[in-house]
Amino acid sequence: MKILGIETSCDETAAAVVEDGVRVVSNVVATSLKDHQQFGGIIPEIASRRQIEFIHWVVAESLSKAQLTLDGIDAIAVTRAPGLIGSLLVGLCFARALSRATGKPLIEIDHIKAHLYANYLQFKPELKACPQERLPAIGLVVSGGHSSLFLVKDFKTFKLLGSTRDDAAGEAFDKVARILDLGYPGGPVIDRLSAQGVNDEIKFPQAPLTGSFDFSFSGTKTAVLYYTQKHKDKPGYSPAKVAYSFQESVVSVLVEKSLKACKKFKVNTLLIGGGVAANSALRRRLAEQAIGSGIDVFFPPMALCLDNAAMIAGLGYHWQQL
Ligand code: KG4
Ligand code: ZN
Fold first, then answer.
1. CB-ligand 1 contact for 300 (6 Å cutoff)
2. Closest C-alpha to ligand 1, atom 7
């Protein structure tokens, strides 16, 4: 079964063709990121206007790369929520119109759950052979808009265990990058800069929220702001050290809560998804600590950590089948 996926929840306009829920036949992503950079964050009005400009070309390109026409597609999957309403509407209306015109079934997909599904699109034989056998799993979605822990029972049953009470993890990275004057998006640049700032001197507070699987990152972000205001004109001030200590603070909470959830629910598979899943410290720490706990950790390939339509088409397969 070949599913055409469409994703337009934020600043990426994406379309992909995925076969049988696992094989990515084509994966096309256009982004308006450059138009937002001067503002230090996504401007919803600009994002939705670019979606309108890109959508037709992106869908046509994904079909062409898959060497297919709409006749060769079995169903259309589209992101329904969450996201910026103007951006979402472009993809939803386009997909609904395609479905009406062609008579192909339409499957509306949750963007956050699809981020976790991106793990099943990689070339890991143990996952691809029978993805269901890796379930139940704990899923951590960390992106610019969300930080959530799920108990994934099957591809239709995601139990929310906890989420952020304030900033999402990626949002905290973006805001700290702004404080440090590093540009937007902040995650990749903080990730790179941290490698030059390894230190033991600066510690930023965490909000452990003991007894809960919720997260809170705004206190850590504010501590970075106060530290920077106080020290930035003093000798020895190093943005790289600040970036490193901030990253450590966020990553250690994410690692600790994810592994705790695995233990509590007696699950030995941990799926990570969302833009922050690209973070090298998170990948390293989880890999190290999970081994000791007998837990297998899975990250999507880098290209599928960020917003894409392959994850929408992939999850769409299971919503169509079950
Ligand atoms: O999943 P995504 O593309 O969009 C949302 O659904 O939000 O995630 C974008 C977020 C941004 O906040 C960006 O700063 C963050 O992912 N990000 C990273 C890294 N690469 C992207 N955060 C930390 N380390 C990275 N290497
Ligand atoms: Zn996303």
1. no
2. 144
Beta strands 2-7 and 75-81, pairing class: parallel
Indicate the pTM of the whole model.
Answer: 0.93
Say if residues 55 and 96 touch (Cβ distance below 8 Å).
no
Q: Domain limits at 95?
A: 2-127+304-321
Number of domains in the chain: 2
Question: What confidence tens digit (pLDDT) does each residue in 183-202 have?
Answer: 999 999 999 999 999 999 99
Q: What kind and span of H or E run contains 55?
A: helix 44-65
Note whether 147 and 228 are same-domain residues.
yes
Quote the Cα angle for 287-290-291, to 5°.
Answer: 85
Q: Is the CB of 242 under 6 A from ligand 1?
A: no
Beta strand 137-142 pairing with 269-273 = parallel
Question: Model confidence over 267-321: pLDDT tens digits?
Answer: 999 999 999 999 999 999 998 998 888 899 999 988 899 999 999 999 999 998 6
